[in-house]
Specification:
heterodimer; A: ABC transporter involved in vitamin B12 uptake, BtuC; two-stranded antiparallel ribbon; 1% strand; B: 377 residues; mainly alpha; 16 helices; 2 strands; disordered N terminus; cell membrane (chain B); transmembrane (chain B); ABC_transp_permease (chain B); transmembrane transporter activity (chain B)
């Protein structure tokens, strides 16, 4: 008996990790991402046929510049939503970072690196407030961030002081849509967003801390019992989202004119959430990818810009954004149901 | 206070027998931690503090009952949409409606088209606008309840969709005309008959729009099988299903109700502004976020199953009067901005306080029953 069983049992410990690793990690590219990529390519080809001006660098470049802040904040939002949270205060954080940085650029004429650092630091601080309240107050994230969004907005409007910020110097032009913002035709801001997505992809897939975010989103209690320090992780996730909102604020300053008005960032929270859910991240938590978010951001911006270029009413673009959200989440639901049945 | 009267009466009625004893029981059961009591106390504190500030002479305008009553014109849409959120959020499973503002805009446009451009009678137009709102809500409900879309996603999508349709259909221009201008009378302040002499002028909208909906909502939530089912599915969906409740239809009906109420608010905004604005419910921050804030402040649990009409009505009243108070203390633009700060801080404070008292009660081993206790009539 013992002679028989020994050789049978022996390979198991060696084989087990391999099998479980494959089970834990989703395929490198998910179905949702392939579908999204196809949809974006089809849309670009169709738009290229109907409006010949679309598929030129003069049109695609600015489009990617506009995608950049949404994709960048989308990376943070993907982290947040994977942990089963949500952050509706990103627009307000962008506004506060943008106005403070712009004021310092005008008043103190600070150099570009310092401006970027200031913006990121402000975003980080605001995000940390969100994180601390959510992790230790144990109130649903949507309520906390609704509350802080109002407070942040007040803060931003105080700095605006009932007027616009005028005469912003071109310090941040290397993030803008003009020539200084491009190298070999690739906008710097979009390149930064792609690098952020790549780092986040690696982090979520292979880093221990990244995997723990999925665990927290899947089941917070189980994650805690498995030894994950849930609260510090959550603080960190919201702080990162804030920091990315700060960096996005720099891009918004750079892409605007020399005047910054109070509507900066307005409505961005919903656009970012739309990009994330179109990218296949589950709002219930525990599942999602940043590559999908990048593709989702490109899709949203393509639809909005494409409608304008076709000469249709600009507002019609958002109807299509809504339809794409329904289609993207709908196909995901169908596949999820099929997976469960299998 | 007029709008809250039905609530007060309801709470006061059963206390007739042995008031003292009942009060003692109520305090022992943690009644002071009750959200409605907390809100009432906050409202009283606000009014007293403002009266003192007024007497000292800090305020820039007179703080009196007339001022409080006239500020109620902003109370009607806020309270109505708070009630809409109450239904949807209470239904549980992440129930929330981000699209109410867009539904308000779209239903308002549809109402104006029917009433002004097609020339239908007023009552018919109002009924059709409300039904149209219900239809928009039904789409939300169908996706969320029957197809299993998370409500946050459904209503984010329809927020974009409905807003876009409202703007495109109206060509981004407000609809106005002689009939609609006359309709403005439906929202303006009037003196009540009989007792009008002694009371301040209350906006008519409180009686024509808010009161009927509030009474109906109270009745549905607290006196019908549907109301019980709604709290049941919000508390535990699976258990409710095993108890024989059609959870999907119940949840869908909550969204339809929210849509119908939004449609009604759409009609109100037309009356309030004397024109149908395609961005009536979505301009600025939109109407959805304040409505959700009101509901949460009123003690509606974002996880579902908990929530009372009285809490929502009081929370809306607190916010409207707080905003009105800030406007006469803090001058000009700063005042409008300070309203944001106040709303945010009150929401955070209420949410954190509510969580703290819940955890204490749980630590003390007390049951955390969430469904409001309905006293038998």
């Amino acid at each position: 008996m013992s002679v028989d069983t020994a050789p049978e049992r022996a390979p198991e410990p060696a084989a087990a990790p391999q099998v479980s690793l494959r089970r834990i990690l989703p395929p490198v590219v998910t179905g949702q991402e392939i579908v999204l990529l196809v949809v974006v390519v089809v849309l670009w080809v169709l738009l290229g046929i109907f409006t010949p001006a679309f598929l030129t660098t003069g049109s695609i470049g600015p489009l990617l510049v506009q995608v950049a802040p949404i994709a960048l904040v989308g990376v943070g939002m993907t982290f947040v939503i994977i942990t089963a949270g949500i952050d509706v205060s990103v627009a307000a954080m962008i506004m506060v970072s943008a106005v403070v940085t712009a004021r310092m650029m005008v008043g103190l004429d600070i150099p570009a690196p310092l401006a970027v650092l200031v913006a990121i630091a402000i975003g980080l601080a605001l995000g940390m407030i969100n994180g601390l309240l959510i992790a230790y107050g144990r109130v649903h994230p949507i309520i906390i961030t609704f509350g802080t969004a109002n407070v942040f907005q007040w803060l931003g409007l105080r700095v605006f002081d009932s007027s616009t910020v005028n005469g912003i110097p071109g310090t941040l032009d290397f993030l803008g849509r003009g020539d200084p913002g491009r190298t070999l035709g690739v906008p710097h801001s979009f390149a930064i967003a792609v690098v952020a997505v790549a780092v986040a992809w690696w982090f979520l897939r292979y880093a221990k801390a990244g995997r723990s975010l999925y665990a927290i989103g899947g089941n917070q209690n189980a994650a805690r019992l498995a030894g994950i320090k849930v609260q510090p992780r959550l603080v960190w996730v919201y702080a990162v989202t804030g920091a990315l909102a700060g960096l996005a604020a720099c891009m918004m300053i750079a892409t605007g004119t020399s005047t910054l008005d109070q509507s900066v960032g307005s409505g961005k929270e919903l656009q970012v959430i739309a990009a994330v859910v179109i990218g296949g991240t589950s709002i219930i938590g525990g599942r999602g990818s940043v590559v999908g978010t990048l593709l989702g951001a490109i899709l949203v911006q393509t639809v909005v810009s494409g409608v304008t270029q076709l000469g249709w009413p600009t507002q019609l673009g958002f109807l299509f954004v809504g339809i794409f959200i329904v289609i993207a989440v709908g196909t995901d639901l169908i596949r999820e149901r099929a997976r469960r049945r299998a | 206070m007029t709008a809250v009267k039905p609530q007060d009466r309801q709470q006061a009625a059963p206390q007739r027998a042995g008031v003292g004893e009942r009060m003692r029981d109520w305090v022992a059961a943690g009644g002071l931690k009750d959200r409605t009591v907390l809100l009432l106390v906050l409202i009283v504190v606000l009014v007293v503090a403002m009266t003192i500030l007024d007497a000292v002479g800090v305020t820039r305008a007179e703080f009196n009952s007339d001022y409080l009553a006239s500020s109620l014109i902003a109370y009607v849409p806020l309270a109505l949409l708070g009630i809409a959120q109450l239904f949807v959020i209470t239904s549980g499973r992440g129930g929330i409606d981000l699209s109410v503002g867009s539904m308000v805009s779209l239903a308002g446009i549809v109402f104006a088209m029917l009433f002004q451009q097609t020339g239908l009678p007023m009552v018919v137009s109002i009924v059709l606008a409300v039904l149209f709102g219900a239809l928009l809500g039904a789409f939300n409900g169908f996706l969320s309840a029957y197809l299993g879309f998370p409500p946050l996603i459904t209503t984010l999508a329809t927020f974009y969709g409905y807003r876009s349709i409202a703007l495109v259909v109206s060509d981004q221009k407000p609809i106005s005309g002689p009939e609609i201008s006359e309709f403005y009378n439906a929202a303006k302040a009037i003196e009540l008959p009989l007792i009008g002499q002694t009371l301040p002028l209350v906006p008519l909208g409180v009686f024509t729009f808010l009161l009927p909906v509030a009474v109906l909502a109270w009745f549905v939530l607290n006196r019908t099988a549907y109301g019980r089912s709604l709290y049941a599915i919000g508390t535990n969906d699976t258990a409710a299903q095993w108890a024989g409740i059609d959870t999907r239809r119940t949840r869908m009906t909550a969204f339809v109700t929210a849509g119908a109420i939004s449609g009604f608010v759409g009609v109100y905004t037309v009356a309030q502004f004397a024109s149908a604005r395609p961005d009536a419910g979505t301009s600025g921050g939109g109407m959805a976020l304040p409505a959700i804030t009101i509901a949460v402040l009123g003690g509606v649990a974002i996880t579902g199953g908990i929530g009372r009409l009285s809490g929502v009505l009081l929370a809306a009243l607190l916010i409207v009067w707080l905003n009105a108070s800030i406007l006469i203390v803090v001058p000009g633009n700063d005042g409008a901005q300070a309203q944001l700060l106040a709303l945010g801080l009150v929401l955070l404070g209420a949410a954190l306080f509510g969580q703290l008292s819940l955890r204490r009660r749980r630590a003390a081993g007390a049951p955390t029953t969430v469904v409001p206790v309905v006293r038998s009539p």
